[in-house]
Amino acid sequence: MSTFSCSLAKSRPRMVLFLTLWCSVTLSMMVGWSEAKARHLKWDVEYMYWSPDCEERVVMGINGQFPGPTIRAHVGDIIHVDLTNKLGTEGVVIHWHGIRQLGTPWADGTASISQCPINPGQTFTYRFVVDKAGTYFYHGHYGMQRSAGLYGSLIVDVPEGEHEPFHYDGEFNLLFSDWWHQSVHEQEVGLHSKPLRWIGEPQTLLMNGRGQYNCSLLPNFGNSSSTQCKFKGNEQCAPQVLRVLPNKTYRLRLASTTALASLNIAIGKHKMIVVEADGNYVQPFAVEDLDIYSGESYSVVIKTDQNPNQNYWISVGVRGRQPKTPPALTILNYKKIPSSKLPSISPPITPAWNDYNHSKSFTKSIFSLMGSPTPPASYDRRLLFLNTQNRIDGYIKWSINNVSFVFPPTPYLGSVKFGLKNVFDQSSPPEDFPASYDIMSPPANPNSNTGNGVYKIDYNTTVDIILQNANALAANTSEIHPWHLHGHDFWVLGYGEGKFTKGDEANFNLKNPPLRNTVVIFPYGWTALRFVADNPGAWPFHCHIEPHLHMGMGVVLSLAVDKVKGIPTDALACGHTADMFLKKKYLP
Amino acid sequence: MSTFSCSLAKSRPRMVLFLTLWCSVTLSMMVGWSEAKARHLKWDVEYMYWSPDCEERVVMGINGQFPGPTIRAHVGDIIHVDLTNKLGTEGVVIHWHGIRQLGTPWADGTASISQCPINPGQTFTYRFVVDKAGTYFYHGHYGMQRSAGLYGSLIVDVPEGEHEPFHYDGEFNLLFSDWWHQSVHEQEVGLHSKPLRWIGEPQTLLMNGRGQYNCSLLPNFGNSSSTQCKFKGNEQCAPQVLRVLPNKTYRLRLASTTALASLNIAIGKHKMIVVEADGNYVQPFAVEDLDIYSGESYSVVIKTDQNPNQNYWISVGVRGRQPKTPPALTILNYKKIPSSKLPSISPPITPAWNDYNHSKSFTKSIFSLMGSPTPPASYDRRLLFLNTQNRIDGYIKWSINNVSFVFPPTPYLGSVKFGLKNVFDQSSPPEDFPASYDIMSPPANPNSNTGNGVYKIDYNTTVDIILQNANALAANTSEIHPWHLHGHDFWVLGYGEGKFTKGDEANFNLKNPPLRNTVVIFPYGWTALRFVADNPGAWPFHCHIEPHLHMGMGVVLSLAVDKVKGIPTDALACGHTADMFLKKKYLP
Quick one: signal sequence residues (chains A, B) (predicted)? Predict the structure, then answer.
């Protein structure tokens, strides 16, 4: 367990000095166990009519709310969620994104992997410890239920009486998502159709489930014919205004659960100091705007040191894909003046969608806070994952090393634990790809195969994964993919252009690589990450773009499942594990 | 086992003489067991894009077809359907409507009652004998999946070498349904919303899954601005033309799996002789038009004795609710001339929607074919079921004796068999309603309760059910409800106006009441039926209007479940029966 003493004093030049330093705190285990509380929540998941962007549609909500209720807990607390499925005919699960589920892999909330879907009318209890302070969120992990609106925030505070390694007077929590007017049921059918019916760009970007489709907060937005929104304030699509006092410091917790969109946030006239990424402290650095990919979270601090007689736009726009969606907007309101007063300065302009240098500059500026755990100096095993866009029987898919992942109906946690042979492919999927593969061109042979074999990982070994991007099916096209690992944080050792080569290792950052659970690969580039496989379970590692996962862009790691104890049997009461429990095929 | 000898010679005056008589056939057991075949079917249920009424939507199909494949079998055949759920997140079941499932109540395909929903990716095998010739169909019985398009025809022929009790040269099969442009997922949310969002009238009526929404087969249909349809013939919404030869006799098999609409069919210039209802032979009688309610099936025979140089419209329109849906049309085409030649005579006009006398006249003309089984002379138990429209917490529901049915997640077949106490209401629901209840007015106290207790029926007893209609919540409104019983046919003893009284028994038809599985109650009226409870199982009896069942309009009969043997355990691997099988709550 490493400690860090007044480490912020060594921070990088762009760091702003109003940060209050906080010293001598153990970073990796700030668990005030004596204070730990059990937090019991009873949630009903159901569809309901809602107007996230002022157009009424059906959303998946929790206890009548969209987004779902925010969970707020302290490090060490035990979260119990009795989740009742009130949907008509659909199963449901919830994944607690960023929570590593140390010792509770059955509570990870991944259908087909950690558990069976919870059937309509039934209740499943998620029980897990939140062991690390940070900004997290939760979301559906079955079909495209995340896209349907099944998400909410999960905030873990340091133990009572302890402090974060930075000061702030108040905080705001912004969960970003994207929203389509077409139902996810239709989207899903389109993704499995021949020819593919792609979901297209979202109609609206949402902040805390609120956006504006048929009106704009801006009186004259671009060339849009949208009229200005008229809000009384209690509309479901009215923006949440951030009301601040002058000359204070505020923490903004930012998280993205978008189905597709990579985002960029900026606040007029206010720099942001990045202090946390995915529940891990980072070496603070200042930015004018911040990229956030689906699956990521950040904390930034801002100082309200601007003219308090003005309001300021907060703007969130699309990066990485040619945007057809207007930016999401809200107001940073200095409380002295009414929030209805329009800012005198235009909203910040989102950087050009394909200005990847801007994106890379931001991403490569993220380092762990001094004193954070550092990676082992070497790896025991390296997996090279080439992602390609492919065709299977004329259907368009995404594949890893030419295998497009399909979910089996029996959860891996059970089928691996009990050694069931007929549930998933028993051969291990490829560990790398042909050295001759031309990543700069569309695949010479675009045909791929489906599969659902697992990468069996040895306990307590150090694993490197090199994510290798490539050209998609269309010429001159390579997309951004944010990859998310369950059950572990990983160190991001480096990013590079073109094909990864042995020589690239020399440039790995082993000194202060950031710990994260989600990392992006840039077009035609690679990303290297390392983790210590110390948390037994069945863990997916996948592109966090919902339709990409649906089209096969993911793998499953099977890690010392024999060491997993105490799986609730109702987590496995489906498929071949159910057959095993039942023993008899017919009742007498 | 009763026989009937040349019974058609005694048929009613309107009977047409071209019927070929068929004598000395046993009616209730025409099972050529020696010829019995096992028919193995492999079905995948999935959503797909389709244009049932020329507008593209998502439908639930089977093996890429909508409607699903027609099953055609002979009496005594064993049907095996390996049903694989290829939906994304929804469970599925299929009910074989009209098949009594003698000895196989676990194959009845009712979620929450006979089995657990089949989860995505899993396969369940339905195995049952078709023991009685007739016109049947199958459909989803979970949520509103029937409305989504999960249905198809099931035709059972007499054993090879045997003959129906009427002659025909050819046959056609017409399965009617109604179709909405709003998805069933949205419809379902609307039905559970406060205030209620009623699904409204269907956009289109379909025959064998084909209708026309944005065009009409009629060049000048009413005041509609629809243009005439231009079909090459291979469109998914092109009508199926009935091609006939002159001076032949054809059997038309008619079945209705509508979600809502009561229908009426007529064929220009061609009388129909009704010969079968719900898989039971009836005393033949001729009609100009025929009412068919959801859940019913008929066979009629027609003679193609009209001018063979003309084509004739077949028209299907809405009864019983103020129609906002144009009639479904197709062509009876005398093969000598092209089917594209428009009939010179306008389509038959559907009787006025509220001409209930016309409806009653038809319904009361149905009698069993002479020689059919007759009911026991008396009953052992009588249940009076008052149906009312109610409010529960401001939600609008339908109730039976003031109980609005809600489906429990654990199937009754398991929970009753194993005596599980915590699955459904252990007290029996009311057997009747207060004698003072005023059926002619909106309910004085519209509040109701939800419940899911069962009516426990003793084995081999004779049960009478009096269905009593009443005024709905709105003044001067009483609706038609077709009630469908699973597991048994029943005799329809009579219909009456107003409230059923003891004296009405005297008019019961015990001589030749028709055997059916579905029967209608008319507005402000009652219907009396009788059955012998000889088929152990858990059997729903419910309004076959899909949203009405969804709003609570049904009951469950529990009948000698202890005698049920051989239930496949995977039918019960959910809810509390799964818990029971699992035994342990946590794995070591």
Answer: 1-38
